[in-house]
Design a protein that fits this description.
- The complex is a heterodimer of chains A (about 120) and B (about 110).
- Helices cover about 0% and strands about 50% of the residues of chain A.
- Chain A is mainly beta and about 120 residues long.
- In chain A, the strands form two sheets. In chain A, strands 2, 4, 5, 6, 9, 10 and 11 form a seven-stranded mixed β-sheet that branches. Chain A has a four-stranded antiparallel β-sheet with strand order 1-3-8-7, with no helix packed on it.
- Chain A is globular.
- Chain B is globular.
- In chain B, the strands form three sheets. In chain B, strands 2, 5, 6, 10, 11 and 12 form a six-stranded mixed β-sheet that branches. In chain B, strands 3-9-8-7 form a four-stranded antiparallel β-sheet, with no helix packed on it.
- The chains are: A mainly beta (about 120), B mainly beta (about 110).
- Chains A and B meet through strand 5, strand 9 and strand 10 of A and strand 5 and strand 6 of B.
């Protein structure tokens, strides 16, 4: 039981390059989330999914796209990377999202992305 | 507007003392959940404790307890008998009535030997 895993752990991109971050969970969670964490900014929600085949925008969606083709996977794409996207990216998942202990989000280890 | 406020950007506490990390929240939803997460220097986000808005008793998990004062809209984390390994960033979070969790900006806790 690995919980939430993220691939890759580190990546350096040049401006304009594209990449995909993969998040996988083995807890049969319905909800999955992508956050970015910048110094002094806390966690900001990029996109999220309430189930297989669904996606929705969060607080800072611009410059990112997501897909949830399988329940256990949630992909985050950067089509044309910019230095402002240098950040640590976290994926999280939960059973539900409404109030209740099953709304607890469990996080992956994070991906440190640098865009030069 | 739904909001989480952590007013202590940093704290220094002597080892073995108890620690209280402050968290206040704002929501008009009658049902909500409150969480605390720990982020050590290694970077991972670790879930610590959950409190439901209708729970009658304060949540406890080992050395962690949540001092929930609903009327004051506060959900302070109490760590008893602090240890050096408790040094980390701590985030308070709330799940209101929609699909998301709102996080505070965090408090960095330093435990001194």
């Amino acid at each position: 039981n690995a919980g939430v895993t993220q691939t890759p752990k580190f990546r350096v991109l040049k401006t304009g390059q594209s990449m995909t971050l993969l998040c996988a969970q083995d807890m049969n969670h319905e909800y999955m989330y992508w956050y970015r964490q910048d110094p002094g900014m806390g966690l900001r929600l990029i996109h999220y999914s309430v189930g297989e085949g669904t996606t929705a925008k969060g607080e800072v969606p611009d410059g990112y796209n997501v897909s949830r083709l399988k329940k256990q996977n949630f992909l985050l794409g950067l089509e044309s990377a910019a230095p402002s996207q240098t950040s640590v990216y976290f994926c999280a998942s939960s059973y539900f999202a409404l109030a209740g202990p099953r709304s607890t989000q469990y996080f992956g280890p994070g991906t440190r992305l640098t865009v030069l | 507007a739904q909001k989480i406020t952590q007013t202590q950007p940093g704290m220094f506490v002597q080892e073995k003392e108890a620690v209280t990390l402050d968290c206040t929240y704002d929501t008009s939803d009658p049902s909500y959940g409150l969480f605390w997460y720990k982020q050590p220097s290694s970077g991972e986000m670790i879930f610590l404790i959950y409190q439901g808005s209708y729970d009658q008793q304060n949540a406890t998990e080992g050395r962690y307890s949540l001092n929930f004062q609903k009327a004051r809209k506060s959900a302070n984390l109490v760590i008893s008998a602090s240890q050096l390994g408790d040094s980390a960033m701590y985030f308070c979070a709330m799940s209101p009535s929609d699909d998301k969790i709102i996080f505070g900006k965090g408090t960095r806790l330093h435990i001194l030997p």
